[in-house]
User: What shape does this take?
Amino acid sequence: MRFTSTRNPDLDVSFEQAVLDCMPSDGGLYVPADVSDLRKWIMYTGKNTSFASIAGALTLACINEEFSPIICETIATKAFPFEPVLKKLDKRFYFLELFHGPSGSHKDFGVSYLVSTLETLLQLSGKNAVFLDVTTGELGAILAKELRGMKHVKAVLLYPAGTVCGLNEKDYVWNGGNIYPFEVTGTESDCHDMVRKIFSDRKLVEKYHLTVANTANIGRLIPQSFFYPFAFSRLKDQVVGNIYYALSAGNYSNVVAGLYSWRLALPVNGFILPSTDTIKLDPLENCKILDSFVPMAQRQPADPADPSNIERLEEVFAVNSAMVKNFIYPADVSEPETEKVTKDLFVKYHLYVDKFTAAAYAAAVKRIDLCEPGDAMVVVARDHPSFSKAYFQHCLGEFPEVPAEIAATRRKIALKRPLISTADDIIAVLKNL
Assistant: This one.
């Protein structure tokens, strides 16, 4: 598979380049330029096919021109000692839980795969790379865990003062680890501005081999496309009709990843989302992407610090923009409706469902008209319910217990180092890394 840019379809780069130099110089985002037809393989999978096996096969489909099947299998096997869980709720609804990794976040999958991929590629080339990212939560803890023992990848992480969590002293670069955390004087927005400033200087990016661990990096996004073939492998013997996925929009990464799965010939009939400021219903109750009215050339460069994948979503439908109404189904969901769903699911199934998953479920119920007898609705649950303690306290008057492993990733850390306030402070450290 080759990769191109959302803003320059003539660009043609390898998977390795797209992952290592993750932000194209034209201001766009890397996207697959072509896809393989995996229909026969996808139909062959079953309930005993592991997530790692699915990931290995799809990795081979993506980079078979660059790396051997053994390397592709190695990347996936190292990345995924854990996997999602598909649960049946009733005769129509299923829940695809993405929070069964070490941190309880869906990010476990993307970050683990990205780190495994980078370390493998860099071992082959003898090069090094540095993640430069902003985090206020689990991303730093996930990176710290995944980078332990790695020889070719380090991470420089920016935290607003007082938000460092989930790290261990052995993870720090000055103690021989692979994480260099900074506490920043200012807000999360100030941290983002510093990362943007550094990435705007191509010479700095190339000199220090900088990349990101968020979904601006196509290597972080691709593994999210493995969720849907995994779900299908469990559903194919249970569901005789169509399959729809309902999910919260987030930064649109899981929607785009699902569409990439569809391109690989995965049987899927559509994605249901709660409406957002960008994806809405038009007067005819069809999907409307508001950003599409602004030409790519007139937009700001894609954001390496706080990405949105709406541009990638538009790229999927660039050849035929009318197709979007046959794959993306928004539904207007209010906050009271979301809270009611949370209460109803708890009372009926004793199921803790956070506000994002509840909104996705509510949207699916509103678009139930799409379904015929025998069809299935799969609700995607991104993060462990314990992430939403305050929400459950408000809605239910109680909240789920926090597993010890997840609690460790949320535990606040006193860094005890001077705060920084400029991008130059970061560049000074990059020189020494």
About this structure: The chain has a mean pLDDT of 91. The longest strand covers residues 153-160. Residues 115 and 146 are 7 Å apart (CA to CA).
